[in-house]
Recover the amino acids of this structure.
């Protein structure tokens, strides 16, 4: 049966690029999303397009979440100095977050703010839950008053992450009054991490510009070490470019020697060693992670997630499924599916179920103080890296 095609919601990125290209600007912009690299990149491009290269006279940037709103309002309402536009940038205000405390008085004050908003001040001492909600709503009411000669830009940091990479509390609430006001008066652009195919094209484009060659196999190793964070990928790609030089070649050993590996990649390598029953190698890698001060709780969370993926893959293979089925079910690239399948074949399904149960037991015992999580993880590695695919009997 054909899989349903997921309809992508408009992100606003295309409209932002067009505004920058045509130099036709809206009164207010919000740039946000999980890919901080793209937020920063388009922030700089928009500032450059509005203010030019060196126009500091007409650019005000505020990076503190304790806003002096009366001062900012004066900046917004001021005429540009010998230029077409002035720009006010507010970075990471946290005013778009959900779950703020408010009361009826703050709501009524925000609704009635209008022309009287200039009287509002926002000192660090005054800003707590209800004050933030009131200020957020008051700014939302003010946005339609931004003059056509001013461009206001909000940027918000990516969504918070929980251990293991799961999404936490969102940094932007699309249901909030401030978000809706920005969308009505200007443009809200969300930047998500591109899929791996797009990231590969991006990296190959950077290498190709220097006529540097790399094989697909070496590129696979590179992405297994970098993950999908664009800031990290950009940094590591620049290392390879500097090392290889124009017209050079990047080899697998070069990637292994030069690239800073993310925690997820190290956990995957640890599971490789466990599945190959290499106790010594797995324990040495675990000790390396502890020396790097990686939190044991995060290591456990990532191991749990990887064991879960392996169990799903092993179940598919046990039912006669193929690597393609694993790839489609887990939503990974073919080369990643090949690695997961190879690891899964080092365990039996009952063994993987017991590994997941043991991860849960370690978590519970560590939280109750009955075991040190570092020791619990070491025992987990010792137990499941022993030779054979049989279920561990205790």
């Amino acid at each position: 049966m054909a899989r349903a095609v997921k309809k992508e919601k408009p992100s606003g990125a295309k409209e932002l690029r067009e505004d920058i290209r045509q130099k036709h600007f809206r009164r207010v912009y919000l740039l946000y999303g999980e890919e901080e690299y793209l937020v920063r990149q388009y922030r700089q491009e928009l500032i450059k397009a509005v203010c030019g290269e060196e126009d500091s006279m007409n650019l005000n940037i505020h990076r503190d979440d304790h806003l002096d709103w009366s001062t900012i309002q004066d900046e917004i309402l001021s005429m540009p100095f010998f230029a077409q536009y002035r720009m006010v940038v507010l970075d990471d205000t946290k005013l778009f977050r959900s779950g703020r405390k408010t009361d009826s008085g703050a709501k009524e004050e925000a609704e009635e703010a209008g022309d009287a908003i200039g009287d509002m001040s926002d000192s660090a001492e005054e800003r707590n839950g209800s004050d933030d909600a009131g200020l957020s709503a008051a700014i939302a009411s003010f946005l339609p008053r931004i003059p056509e000669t001013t461009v206001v830009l909000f940027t918000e940091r990516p969504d918070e992450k929980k251990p293991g990479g799961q999404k936490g509390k969102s940094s932007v609430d699309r249901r909030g009054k401030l978000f809706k006001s920005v969308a009505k008066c200007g443009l809200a652009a969300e930047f998500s991490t591109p899929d791996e195919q797009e990231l590969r094209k991006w990296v190959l484009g950077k290498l190709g510009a220097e006529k540097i060659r790399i094989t697909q196999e070496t590129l696979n190793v590179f992405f297994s070490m970098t993950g999908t964070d664009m800031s990290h990928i950009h940094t590591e790609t620049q290392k390879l470019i500097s090392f290889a030089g124009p017209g050079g070649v990047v080899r697998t050993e070069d990637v292994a020697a030069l690239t800073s590996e993310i925690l997820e990649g190290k956990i995957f390598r640890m599971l490789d060693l466990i599945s190959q029953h290499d106790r010594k190698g797995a324990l040495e890698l675990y000790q390396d992670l502890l020396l790097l001060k990686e939190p044991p709780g995060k290591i456990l969370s990532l191991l749990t997630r990887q064991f879960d993926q392996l169990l799903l893959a092993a179940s598919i293979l046990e039912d006669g499924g193929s690597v393609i089925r694993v790839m489609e079910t887990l939503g990974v690239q073919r080369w990643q599916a090949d690695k997961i399948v190879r690891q899964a074949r080092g365990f039996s399904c009952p063994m993987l179920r017991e590994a997941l149960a043991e991860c849960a037991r370690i978590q519970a015992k560590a939280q109750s103080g009955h075991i040190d999580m570092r020791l619990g993880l070491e025992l987990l590695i010792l137990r499941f890296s022993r030779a054979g695919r049989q279920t561990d009997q205790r």
Residues 275 and 346 are 5 Å apart (CA to CA). The radius of gyration is 26 Å. The chain has three domains: 13-190, 196-258, 263-384.
